[in-house]
């Protein structure tokens, strides 16, 4: 597995006797917007919203002559920026350490006065003018966050993995920015459905673009154990072979990671300034461990009677590939339990340099383990974790009766608040016990919950969101006041969770995570504001979120076209070419049209020589397994005379929404 910071991307080469140069690209919601769009630059559409944004005058254009100027530690981030910009622009921007010139992008470690209120180490100050770009931050992490903002200031096609024609302009702007919370997490469950390291790295890429800085990896569950553990080969030889398979869905073949693969993913996350938090759930959610080791009588590390690890509801244990929970548990009184868990903790903490180890701890009913047994196991395991120099972390159940974790341990609040629910109680108890809290209430952060009733079948669950949890649910809440007695003094951040009972591929995961993850990213990063369905903050967010549609499409990220978002038609020139006879054929533009079928679109091309044709609209419409409504707008035309022609590509969608792209075509015969 490569340890490069981003996956290799293919490049396209543009050539031909007829060149099409972009003049203007308008992404419009309605014909009435056309005049304003043509005369006024749109404000920066940045997600998450920065602390402060002040628009300037004019714009900066990156060209093949642009340099990235940086010294010392900032050079690594400069190389990151050059790597981000290369695939779409085709430019190999040099990273230099000399004095900046006009037209350069400068990155520097510094301490801008505007960041005096920031104590996160992630703040940055960004200035874009017509003559250059200047990014300053106290740390390389802050610089890295800043280049994510630079990416969003550029046209959406900067996310393309193949060369686009540009131009690559940024509006003049002054940005001061730093996060509200230091922990902004995304959890992926690979226990119920296996995902290969390459898929996880793609998800890291996608999340880092929106300043997510923690990746929580759920490595095991009842259906599968996904990491090789030295000394316990059965954990993968037996425990990794299954996955959830229910409701007629075909079960994937399972799988596991080697320790070398895991270590490479940890390094990949770190290269994106993302901490990887490993989780092996205990004492419940571990039927895969029990099934693997229950009969492992030949293992010299065990005492010959490994059956005593099983305190679950079934003895002997049996595989259950449904989504059932609450039936498996490890016995806290078994020496074999501790031999296995200690080996797992020792090896995972050695492979994971981050500060946290997550021991799980959720959904263990007292009919399986008495509360005193549960508390005894949690206390002992947390002590082992602390002894390895890590902070113990777990679902908020670990703060229940009888547990006594070290101050500063982390409880993840997950149950929907309902006054007297156990989730509310344990979040409050966690604070009373000196613990910190990551806010992850299921009805505001669980990305596997359906968007609406029956949508999108067959993906998603409904137990936390009976009527669905769309973008509004993920945006309109406040982590620091959500649970009585739990304030910003206690909350270290937020986390979105992707449980995979119904999600068998990265495409499935993307469809459920996006665009809601962007709402959660803003809740975790941006300053506290009133967030309600009618608040100005939410309406502003929806507009900025709509602008992310073409970016997600260009980056080949699958996403749900939420009807709450005012998605736009967005046309971009392809840089098409023609032969020496003046014949133009093929796609002149690409179209992002979230949620719109090709049959609902009409398109035309005014060739600029007095002729107009109906354009072809080809591509794959949005489904739960394909990139969202990305189309090619094409035509076929031969110019009779050489010259420069203004060509207009127009697409009209439902309800009169229109986008027009004007290009200049110079034909030579």
From TrEMBL:
| One protein family per Pfam | Glyco_hydro_20
Q: Which family does it belong to?
A: Belongs to the glycosyl hydrolase 20 family.
Residue spans crossing the bilayer: none
Residue numbers annotated as active site: 363
Query: Might you give the EC number(s) for this enzyme?
Result: 3.2.1.52
Q: Signal peptide: which range, if any?
A: 1-34
User: Which one GO biological process term can you cite for this protein?
Assistant: carbohydrate metabolic process
Please tell me which top-level EC class this enzyme sits in: hydrolase
Protein name from the UniProt record: beta-N-acetylhexosaminidase
Q: Which reaction does it catalyse?
A: Hydrolysis of terminal non-reducing N-acetyl-D-hexosamine residues in N-acetyl-beta-D-hexosaminides
Q: What is the lineage of its organism?
A: Bacteria, Bacillati, Actinomycetota, Actinomycetes, Micromonosporales
Q: Gene3D superfamilies from the xrefs? A: Chitobiase/beta-hexosaminidase domain 2-like, Glycosidases, Immunoglobulins
Show the PANTHER family listed in the entry. BETA-HEXOSAMINIDASE, BETA-N-ACETYLHEXOSAMINIDASE
Protein source organism: Rugosimonospora africana
């Amino acid at each position: 597995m490569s340890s490069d910071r981003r996956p290799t991307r293919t490049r396209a080469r543009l050539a031909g006797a007829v060149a099409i140069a972009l003049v203007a690209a308008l992404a419009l919601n309605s014909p009435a917007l056309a005049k304003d769009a043509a005369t006024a630059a749109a404000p920066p559409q940045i997600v998450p919203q920065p602390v402060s944004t002040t628009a300037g005058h004019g714009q900066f254009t990156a060209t093949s002559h642009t340099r990235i100027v940086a010294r010392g530690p900032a050079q690594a981030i400069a190389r990151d920026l050059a790597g981000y910009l290369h695939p779409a622009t085709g430019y190999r921007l040099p990273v230099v350490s000399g004095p900046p010139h006009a037209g350069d992008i400068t990155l520097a470690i510094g301490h801008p006065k505007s960041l005096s209120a920031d104590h996160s180490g992630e703040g940055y100050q960004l200035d874009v003018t017509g003559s250059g770009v200047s990014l300053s931050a106290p740390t390389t992490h802050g610089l890295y966050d800043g280049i994510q903002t630079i990416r969003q200031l550029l046209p959406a096609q900067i996310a393309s993995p193949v060369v686009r024609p540009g131009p690559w302009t940024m509006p003049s702007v002054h940005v001061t920015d730093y996060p509200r919370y230091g922990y902004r997490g995304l959890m992926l469950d690979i226990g119920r459905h296996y995902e290969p390291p390459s898929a996880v790295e793609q998800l890291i890429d996608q999340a880092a673009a929106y300043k997510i800085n923690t990746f929580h990896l759920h490595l095991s569950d009842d259906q599968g154990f996904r990491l090789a553990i030295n000394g316990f080969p059965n954990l993968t030889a037996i425990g990794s072979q299954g996955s959830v398979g229910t409701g007629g869905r075909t079960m994937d073949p399972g799988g596991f990671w080697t320790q070398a693969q895991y270590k490479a993913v940890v390094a990949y996350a770190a290269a994106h300034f993302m901490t990887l938090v490993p989780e092996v759930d205990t004492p419940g959610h571990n039927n895969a461990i029990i099934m693997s080791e229950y009969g492992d009588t030949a293992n010299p590390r065990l005492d010959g009677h490994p059956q005593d690890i099983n305190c679950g509801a079934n003895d002997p244990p049996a595989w259950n590939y449904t989504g059932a929970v609450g039936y498996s548990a490890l016995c806290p009184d078994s020496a074999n339990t501790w031999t296995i868990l200690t080996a797992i903790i020792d090896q995972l903490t050695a492979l994971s340099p981050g500060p946290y180890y997550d021991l799980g701890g959720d959904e263990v009913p007292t009919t399986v383990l008495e509360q005193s047994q549960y508390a005894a196991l949690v206390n002992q395991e947390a002590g082992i974790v602390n002894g390895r120099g890590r902070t113990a972390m777990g679902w908020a159940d670990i703060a229940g009766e009888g547990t006594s974790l070290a101050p500063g341990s982390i409880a993840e609040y997950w149950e929907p608040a309902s006054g007297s629910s156990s989730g509310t109680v344990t979040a409050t108890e966690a604070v009373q016990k000196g613990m910190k809290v990551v806010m992850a209430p299921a009805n505001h952060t669980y990305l596997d919950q359906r968007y609406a009733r029956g949508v999108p079948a067959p993906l998603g669950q409904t137990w936390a969101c009976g009527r669905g949890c769309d973008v509004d649910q993920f945006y309109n809440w406040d982590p620091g006041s959500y649970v009585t007695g739990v304030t910003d003094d206690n909350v270290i951040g937020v986390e979105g969770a992707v449980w995979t009972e119904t999600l068998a591929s990265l495409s499935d995961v993307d469809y459920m995570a996006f665009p809601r993850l962007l709402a959660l990213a803003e809740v975790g990063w941006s300053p506290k504001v009133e967030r309600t369905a009618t608040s100005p903050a939410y309406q502003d967010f929806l507009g900025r979120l709509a602008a992310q549609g073409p970016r997600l499409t260009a980056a080949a990220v699958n996403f749900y076209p939420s009807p709450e978002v005012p998605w736009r038609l967005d046309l971009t020139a392809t840089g098409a070419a023609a032969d020496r006879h003046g014949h133009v054929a093929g796609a002149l533009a690409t179209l992002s049209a979230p949620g719109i079928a090709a049959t609902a679109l009409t398109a035309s091309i005014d060739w600029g020589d007095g002729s107009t044709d109906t354009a072809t609209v080809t591509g794959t419409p949005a489904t739960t397994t394909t990139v969202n409504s990305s189309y090619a707008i094409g035509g076929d035309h031969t110019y009779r005379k050489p010259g420069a022609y203004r060509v207009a590509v127009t697409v009209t969608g439902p309800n009169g929404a229109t986008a027009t792209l004007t290009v200049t075509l110079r034909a030579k015969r």
